[in-house]
Structure prediction request, 330 residues.
Amino acid sequence: MSRSPGRKQENHKISRELFVLTYGALVAQLCKDYEKDEDVNACLDRMGYSIGIRLIDDFLARSAVKKCRSYSETADMIAQVAFKMYLGITPSVSCSSATGNEFSLILDKNPLVEFVEELPAERASLCYCNLLCGVIRGALEMVHLAAEVTFLQDRLKGDAVTEIGITFLRKPEDRKHRRN
Amino acid sequence: MADEALFLLLHSEMVAGLYRAAEQGEGENGRCTTKLESMGFRVGQGLIERFTKDTARFKDELDIMKFICKDFWTTVFKKQIDNLRTNHQGIYVLQDNKFRLLTQMSVGKQYLEHAPKYLAFTCGLIRGGLSNLGIKSIVTAEVSSMPACK
Prediction:
């Protein structure tokens, strides 16, 4: 190969850094526009949702995975395939409820906060990676799985690891009967 | 690679989100473009630092522009600039016939009035990169027919 493999990896790393830097600039701009942390968090979640409903198409096209038959398979798919494909990390999955519809993804390395040292004092309740929650929620909804996704622990706020909790809600078809 | 899809989606979401907020609030369109451009500026500054860590010092302005057209553009948009023109007096025109951020929108003249919103971030990106390489500049964009832009 005429191009050295080192250079290709570097370029790959840089295009990921482009995404991380852009995300950082976006959060900074949102912090300037909104005073309250909840507003910024809500805005990030909304944007993540819109991204998620489109990202799922891209994901299914690239990975060509078969239909998941259970919630735990879905959670594994998100952690091992989707996160690996888009962010290059593989969080570990653990099931945290007896009913089998609550899972948590534990990220020991979060590429989105690569350039962030700590949250500023006046933004203590900012969920910096709230976009991720929105993305997962949007993507799951497009495959007809309603879920609530939140951050349970956040390294930026002083916890040991970053943990994302996914709670699968009842299927939308059940709720339709109640409405009528 | 898959990162590209993520960045494209994030970018279009950013543009849409900022303009949506402006419609509901008090800001006018001009401010949104400025915000996008300044975001691009910050990202461009950081990115060019990471990028040129190991490359040799640039000989002159033209060398820097060629670097932007080839390496920088390839890393960010996965292709090179198609055409670089200059009047050797400080004005450079970079032409990209298939601009990555516009290919998904339309081919031709439909939605032309929305195109500048999507170019603001990239203009800021270039301005930030140049500023960290020591060049003060003004970057503007022109779209006559999607997805080509100058």
Remarks:
- The interface with chain A takes residues 1-7, 9-11, 13-14, 16-18, 21, 35, 38-40, 42-43, 46-47, 50-51, 74-76, 121 of chain B (CB under 8 Å).
